[in-house]
Amino acid sequence: MTAEPPRGGRARVAVLISGRGSNMAALVYAAKARECPFEIVLVASNDPEAQGLELARAEGIATFAHSHKGLKRAEFDAILDGEIRKAGAEFVALAGYMRLLSPEFVAGWHGKMLNIHPSLLPKYKGLHTHERALDAGDTHGGCSVHIVTAELDDGPVLGQTEVAILPGDTPDTLAARVLIAEHQLYSRVLAEYVGRV
Ligand code: GRF
Fold first, then answer.
1. Assigned domain for 59 exists
2. Judging by DSSP bridges, how do beta strands 140-147 and 157-164 pair with one another?
């Protein structure tokens, strides 16, 4: 395998989080490979207490945190948008970002914003995905990376990983295994995507 840095520099990516940030961490670690075609230039959160911010800071990545409380959605998103553009980001990766985005924000990043969702879309948009897969008697759960559009969890799917459901799985045990798949899927799909748009 060659380990050349990408020609023409790396694509600059901002990651938005609201909590733990394990998918953000997976992207940060993937970007440490010499041949990775993207770099993480900003980690931003709508929750100044988000656990992932500390990890990003320790990795030397610029962070921005601002509570959305008391602000209209479009107002908050305009602040966020300004920070992302100031950081020179060309792409946005949502990684456990738990706020609905305003139509203006989504339009401004059309085709340049990805999300990871813990189900095999189009199944189980929204919350409680693992519980819903188990209740339905599905043989597999999984995760999807998709382009963000105005509709929640609805844009074109770029990649998916199926994860077999085991007898005795609970939403938590299934979520833990799907998370392993998420961490691999997101960096792979993002790398492919920034290379072709
Ligand atoms: C992940 O399961 C992701 O798919 C979903 O929210 C969770 C965030 O986890 N959108 P983390 O913050 O990346 O650890």
1. yes
2. antiparallel
Report residue 121 as tokens: 């879309």
Give domain status of residue 1, yes or no: no
pTM over 0.70: yes
Catalytic residue among 68, 117, 128, 146: 117
Domain total of the chain:
1
Sole residue written with tokens 């999300």: 115
Judged by phi (left if over 0) then psi (alpha if -120 to 50, else beta), residue 134 lies in: alpha
Residues with CB under 6 A from ligand 1: 17, 19-23, 95-96, 116-118, 179, 182
Which residue segment(s) compose the domain that 102 sits in?
Answer: 10-196
Atom of ligand 1 at shortest distance to CA of 26? 13
Residue 4 lies in a domain: no
CATH number for position 161: 3.40.50.170
Paired with 13 in beta bridges are 40, 91
Report the side by side order of strands in the sheet with 11-17.
63-65, 38-45, 11-17, 91-94, 113-117, 140-147, 157-164
Residue 117 alpha carbon to ligand 1 centre in Å: 7
* Model pLDDT for residues 83-135, shown as the tens digit of each residue: 999 999 999 999 999 999 999 999 999 999 999 999 999 999 999 999 999 99
- For residue 58, being part of any structural domain is answered with yes
Look at ligand 1, atom 5, and give the residue with the nearest C-alpha. Answer: 96
